[in-house]
Amino acid sequence: MTDKELPKKYDPQIEEPKLQEFWNKNNINNFDPNDTDRPIYSIDTPPPTVSGKMHMGHAFSYNHFDFIARYKRMRGFNVLMPIGTDDNGLPTQTLIQKIKKVRARDLGRKEFVSLCLKTLEKELRPQYLDDFKRMGMSYNWDVNYSTINPHCQKVSQKSFIELYKAGKEYRAEAPAMHCPKCETAISQVECEDEEIDSFFNDIVFKTEDKELIIATTRPELLPACVAIFYHPDDKRYQHLNGKLAKVPLFDFEVPILEDKRADPEKGTGIVMCCTFGDSTDCEWQKAHKLPIKEAIDKRGKMTSLAGKYDGMKIKEARKAIIDDIKSADLLKNQKSIRHSVNVHERCGTPVEFVHSKQWFIKYLDMKEEMLHWGMEFDWFPKHFRNRYDNWVQGLQWDWCISRQIYFGIPFPVWYCKNCDETILAKEEDLPVDPTVDSAPVDKCPKCGGTEFIGEKDIINTWATSSLTPTIVKELFKGKPVYEELINNPMSLRPQAHDIISFWLFTTVVKSKMHFDMLPWKDCMISGWMLDPNGKKMSKSKGNVIEPQSMIKKYSADSLRYLAGGSKLGDDLNFQEKELVAGKKMINKIWNATKFAIMNLDGFDPNTNADDV
Question: Which of 14, 313, 377, 387 has the fewest CB atoms below 10 angstroms from its CB?
Fold first, then answer.
């Protein structure tokens, strides 16, 4: 090629696709599974959730590990950088319902799952992957997976079976966090704190000879009140121990008990216990063997226990009950407050505690070990280990992994209709769907029963995403590199800081439980791409800047130039002037290339440098 063959002006819309075609044609990005001579550098790449469009966060943080992959290839490593997509579970179910304007429950499970798979395959995933290609990502495009495909289903179901046999999983009827809007159980990792406006209501409870003032933000839980607690050192209430108090409006009595978890400094120092208002209510119910009363159902509506408020939504019932308490002259004071509540991170709905049967991974007994695990690998930047440590120290619940949704990976489990014995699928049959497939036994090993019920719940998507190192390694079973991959941690985990408690933590837990091995050696944490004013981009705020439009206006390399100018772990405000600077830099490189080619006439690339 001569300088005359290069266009005078660089046009990235023409040249970037040509370069991409060249890379693909010459297998420049490929990982060689037959090469056992070169050292392997493996990256546990984040499988983006298929949301229909690439967002600016991808264009920002994903380029960071692409830079590392390219550098390692130039250093002679056999670089494993797979491309996965996370497209199972609640996020996909919500997206399909939105774009297809349907409701899963109306279509039924079989038809809805078929719609999801078809939409992913024909509409969403191809465009999504094309966007990443256009950004210039040097993935091993032939090493790919989808977290809903049969391979990932098999890996996820096998993980469940192994942990169950190891005594690390259990199914229990207990209070579980529940999202009324999404109508499914959720885990602690899927909650976030949100400040909301509310009221502290001072409500009158009556004993035989005294009025008790109890402050609460949740009067709608009065019909589920099962006890009243005070701190044992609080002299104001010691004489009431064991006596009964009448619940206002609902005219039933509950015991007054002492417990050190009651805060004498909060409100009036005496508190009602309802099943279930929060985690403390759950602890009290279990510790004092209190009855269970459900005032709110799984769809966020009042139950028949609420009497005249039956069927009302939570906020509607709260207002109606307060109005009636006022009318009965039982409201002594009402104060506006702003306080923090747990909400579901997917939809922002306040979390409820619902008594139900769920599957859990047992790990609360491993908190000290978890903290040690966090010290074993290298963090970049180092201070992000603090976020991991804080998460572990704040854990209060075992990991709830069952979800009451339609789309996702099924539990490989059946139950004996007679005695409820758990029947596991055989590993050679995986993947299975117990709502369609027959149980692997003819008789229950416990009672001899012959009828079985397939589990309808879905395995939480994070319980599958936490297996990405295994998912990738198992793609090479039977290949020369397999033994090296399966017996060693991957080299790098790159990810954003907001999912340390989601993806990073759960991947460490799963890897240690299954292999007693770290999932990777290094962890690289990226920040967020914020809007020009330093605000998080969101559709509701109208401040979303799409990378596709910036690529079209400037180029993919200009966007990569912007990403390369950031500090690892820090959020970066989007500044369009940096794209302008990037475009100018690329033009300079183009012109320098033309100049270099002008002076290469007669040059033999095989000539020894010492002879020139």
Answer: 14
